[in-house]
Amino acid sequence: MLQLLHIQNYAIIDALEIPWREGLSIITGETGAGKSILMGALSLILGERADSGVVFNKDKKCVVEAVFKVSGKTVVRSFLEENDLEVQDEVVIRREIGSNGKSRAFINDTPVTLQQLQELTVMLVDLHRQFDTLSIGSSGFQLAVIDAMAASSRELAAYQKVFRRWQDNQKELLKLKEQQSRDSRELEFNRFLFQELEEVNLKEGDLEQLEAELELLTNAESIKTALVQINQQLREQDQPVIQVIRQLVQQLQPFTAQQKDLGELVERLHSVQLELADLADEADRWSDKISYDGERVMAVEERLNIGNRLLKKHGARTTAELLAIQVELSEKLQSVVALDERLNQLEDEVKLNFDELKAAGKKLSALRTAQATPLMKQVNQLLHRVGMPNASIKVTITPVEPALMGMDNVDFLFDANKSGQFAPLRKVASGGELSRLMLCIKSLVAGKVDLPTLIFDEIDTGISGEASRQVGLIMKEMAAARQLICITHQPQIAGRADHHLFVYKQEKAGQIQTRIRSLSESERIRAIAEMLGGEQPSAAAMENAREMIQSP
């Protein structure tokens, strides 16, 4: 419920603070007094974009602040928690506009975006202006009315859950099919590349070992010659090195007893002799192993050529990189197989989802269809009350392809003159007819769902007399369970108010400003009498006004 509206430095309002109460609050005032300005300020609270032109005094900012009582509204509490906003029994919404047009929005003193503001305020206020009657012709609005009257929120939620799952699976299926199309173009090429690598049967370090082996085979003769020379120099020359060192050891050996240091020298010479002998043996063994093998050279060169061609082809530098590419190709080929399996599985899931969707949609459609006739009957009865005895609506529900809101197209058709010729509302109903029809429909919906604060801005245009009285009665009935605010020029509606606010202009310091005040009962009688009979109402007008206020 809206508890307080504070407006500062907006249009021709210097400062206003308007308290609000439960029930039916009526706002009246002469044309141009500023009633539309109040609605403009309230629209800022609801998230409309700001215009620097509304700033009254360019030396300071414009501030519009509203306080809502939200205790017991779980959807509002959930919104505040989800957006990390302070949770209280009151919600304070503030808009600030600078002279440069820059605007800021706050919820409970925390800065928020306009989108967040709009998401919250739609739970708090339903503002209906005269031009908003166009929305009644939209299929979305008409579908929402049917669902509200049918109390089908649970069935709609169940349908939407299945629909989103079906839609998500369809999107994934389409995505996988596109991937399959791309993969199929690459499949044969990847399979060829993989088989080419698999046939070579490379092992870790293969090409590097082959390079080393080829280097050895290519230089086999030179290496063998060098090894033979080592063995010859050490053992087979006229004076082999090993034999020379052995003789030196023998010459020094007899003197080791007299000179201890010579014994160490002899030991060292003997160690050198043994090491050289071992070197000669090792060179001999290597010499026996190494030999030029032309066939092996050709085999190694052929395998290396294949390996180098693959390295160049894949932009690799080592055997390890080629093996990694082979693994990657294998995974791609396996993923194609897995993709086919997932596609088959997903196609089955989509088919199952669609069967579930049709079942849920059929259940939802049944509820909507069952409500069509009762809704027509109730709306037509209300149309008669508001001065449209010859008007009637027809509700048609036709099947359509599955969508988020169901598998039905709802259309409200209208006949203003009992002609039997029904046509879409937006094509045949006048503004005044749409306004009254909207009121009738909202009054019915209000009895089914927890609507927020309802605000009607001059939707009574084009009616008078008994029709106005009936509109007032309908509003009074609606206000019994919720806060309802109405700007009106009709005395029959004003007479039904629980609270009557009067908007007027006042000159202050040479400037015209909009003001608003709450009327006492005697002031209400005077104001309604003036609406009936002009600025100088007659005694009859005063008595008529008194009866309007006091009549049940």
From TrEMBL:
<keyword id="KW-0234">DNA repair</keyword>
<dbReference type="GO" id="GO:0006281">
    <property type="term" value="P:DNA repair"/>
</dbReference>
<keyword id="KW-0227">DNA damage</keyword>
<feature type="coiled-coil region">
    <location>
        <begin position="193"/>
        <end position="220"/>
    </location>
</feature>
<comment type="similarity">
    <text>Belongs to the RecN family.</text>
</comment>
<dbReference type="GO" id="GO:0006310">
    <property type="term" value="P:DNA recombination"/>
</dbReference>
<feature type="coiled-coil region">
    <location>
        <begin position="262"/>
        <end position="289"/>
    </location>
</feature>
<dbReference type="GO" id="GO:0043590">
    <property type="term" value="C:bacterial nucleoid"/>
</dbReference>
<dbReference type="Pfam" id="PF02463">
    <property type="entry name" value="SMC_N"/>
</dbReference>
<dbReference type="InterPro" id="IPR004604">
    <property type="entry name" value="DNA_recomb/repair_RecN"/>
</dbReference>
<dbReference type="GO" id="GO:0005524">
    <property type="term" value="F:ATP binding"/>
</dbReference>
<protein>
    <recommendedName>
        <fullName>DNA repair protein RecN</fullName>
    </recommendedName>
</protein>
<dbReference type="InterPro" id="IPR027417">
    <property type="entry name" value="P-loop_NTPase"/>
</dbReference>
<dbReference type="InterPro" id="IPR003395">
    <property type="entry name" value="RecF/RecN/SMC_N"/>
</dbReference>
<comment type="function">
    <text>May be involved in recombinational repair of damaged DNA.</text>
</comment>
<keyword id="KW-0175">Coiled coil</keyword>
<keyword id="KW-0547">Nucleotide-binding</keyword>
<keyword id="KW-0067">ATP-binding</keyword>
<dbReference type="GO" id="GO:0009432">
    <property type="term" value="P:SOS response"/>
</dbReference>
<feature type="domain" description="RecF/RecN/SMC N-terminal">
    <location>
        <begin position="3"/>
        <end position="508"/>
    </location>
</feature>
